[in-house]
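Re: the multi-chain job from yesterday

Posting the exact lines I submitted so nobody has to dig through the queue logs.
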Amino acid sequence: MDKKLKLGIIGLGTVGQGVVKVLSPFDDIEIVGAAVKNLSKKRDVEIKCLTDNPFDLANNVDIDVIVEVAGGLGVYDVLKTAIKNKKHIVTANKELLARHGSELFDLARENDVIIMYEAAVAGGIPIIYPIKSSLSANSFSSVAGILNGTTNYILTKMEEDNLSYHDCLLKAQELGYAETDPTGDVEGYDAMYKIAILSNIAFNKRIDIDKIYREGISNISSLDMKLADEFGYKIKLIALSKKMNDLSGNECLDIRVHPMLVSKNKSLADIKNATNAVMLDGFPVGEVMFVGAGAGEFPTASSVVGDILTIKSEFNSNGEILPMTVCHHSDYANQINIEDTINCYYLRIKAANTPGTIGKIGLACGKYNINLSCILQKGVNDDRSATIIVITEECYEKDINLMIKDVEQTSEVRVLNRIRVM
Amino acid sequence: MDKKLKLGIIGLGTVGQGVVKVLSPFDDIEIVGAAVKNLSKKRDVEIKCLTDNPFDLANNVDIDVIVEVAGGLGVYDVLKTAIKNKKHIVTANKELLARHGSELFDLARENDVIIMYEAAVAGGIPIIYPIKSSLSANSFSSVAGILNGTTNYILTKMEEDNLSYHDCLLKAQELGYAETDPTGDVEGYDAMYKIAILSNIAFNKRIDIDKIYREGISNISSLDMKLADEFGYKIKLIALSKKMNDLSGNECLDIRVHPMLVSKNKSLADIKNATNAVMLDGFPVGEVMFVGAGAGEFPTASSVVGDILTIKSEFNSNGEILPMTVCHHSDYANQINIEDTINCYYLRIKAANTPGTIGKIGLACGKYNINLSCILQKGVNDDRSATIIVITEECYEKDINLMIKDVEQTSEVRVLNRIRVM
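And the result, structure tokens for all chains:
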């Protein structure tokens, strides 16, 4: 008979309870104990040995694998202890991996254990392990995705029900899609951690998350949604990472999270509500897209338990580690500054409806070598001002910023919103 | 230094040459030789040792892995010989796996070697290995997909350019998307092999392909396309496999390939041209979809080389086999007959435009307990006949067949097309 794989679980919140439920039919896996903050809290699942000190698990010689589904940076030292005690790690902790992944992977390599983290990016969607296995022949040129379900839900509602950002945020909070303090989601932090992890494995480089440009969705108005729709776009919070050359011709990574106008012809435009999607572009595979639930008790448990079973399957055969799961790179990526990135831009401009205003905008664009792709003025507002929509061709971010500064020097013109176009 | 992994390649057609090109940067993998039909044919790639006898490779003691990208059933004995000689197999051969997979997997298990076949289903899309690894915690209820690029290209063209099936087939042949004899694609054989393989791994059962119901796309007219569009559907060739209970309450699999009306709200409706997509529904993951190129030199090579690298990565560590890739099931699925499946149906009916015709159709439906979801007659044709479109609610296939027989007994009514609805 196979040896039982013995787990210690850190965190028995929604995901932790999902993991325990999903594991119940697997007789060859035993939960030795779980660490929780509050020992007396009522839970859906029963664990024979609860502790409020996670180090009890990290130091327990009976445990083979630590399953960390608590989240946050507080578990860093616990995981280091567990790794030093030769325990494999399965974690869903995107923030910890994005901030301290390098140190943890180094430590894991030194201790001949592995860290699996399928659930850290895009919940139930298999993406981490497929990149490392089936897609391992590829050299990727870009990774782009809708990696945060909360913001995608809010943007979908804004678009479908023509509601304001704040009304949709409230609705998302009522339904439990958004937290009481929604900052981590709506300001793009969650998506930033995830794109850092994806960039790390797709491009085999260490990523400095402090260099990732990040912008949330709170500036998107339903007017922007409507205007984008007229031009054939939807507005999505896109996490993007692509290879490019910097101004000196050196290879670098352009990594960022911000709202984008996405052409309705692109598959990412069809991703609705809390669904996540990851689009990879590489050679030889071309474009592949993975779509599914990005969060939730059971989808996340699917990935966590998938990782546990993967370890289990290796564990039985010889106790050695899965070579594919070992992180071998130690170089930091050369990450480009947002000012040096190239984009098309949507600009929503409020201008005095006086002769020559459109001319001034056109001249300012010309001054910075920015070509226009579309320009539209639809009638005149009640206050006699005009709303003008401009969509540019590709230009440097620094040039669009200079152009905006320039055009706003005349008191009649204000750029009310600027959104990059995918 | 790691030991080199030594390959023998059977077949140097489009995919075989793609594999050789994609392998070129991998210094730790050596192509010992390749077997081809025609030794003197000009090729894009150079192989030091060519043979026209694939058994030379199967019997070559220097070779660790046989990469079979020739296709067809002719290589069956070669692969058996290779397996008996303890060689791992990487194959893209859907027909062989669908017809003789069980025997090959049994033989591989006896000989402690593995068979990898990511490229056999949906080309470059990672789907086989993700089901076996990241998604291994799941119990699947259904697998559905657009698994044949040729037919999806033809259906997309019919829809977008309002052309006939035959015009679009000719166009697909001109562009190299369809073969001179297109039967394998347009009659659904290719998709049938693939859904058999997917059913096998998703449901852990052996599949008898002779029990898979199969229907091609040659009966789809551009009129059906247009009418489906009016009701909010696209028409796609869908390969489907789902768990259900048969009439005696026993669990069985409903596996089939045929055209379906797919609601525009479903993601599969958005899959265009030669793109493939696989949709899995399971617990705990929910719905996940994988989209990408289903064929072609490089996408297919991505999967073949991914499999080779997966074997290589294990091979280095200890020479043991990947437990996850071993096939353990030996039971045949209980496959349901198409007559006993439950579907909604689209019927395009030609009827004499006489009083009572719609009433007769309605009565016949009532007789077999078939509820109508939509019924539409749009004016009268030039020959005074009427085109009536009916979409039913769910009913047994045998009942819709009886109803059609019944209604056609009156000379005024002919059911010109019947398409199942997804």
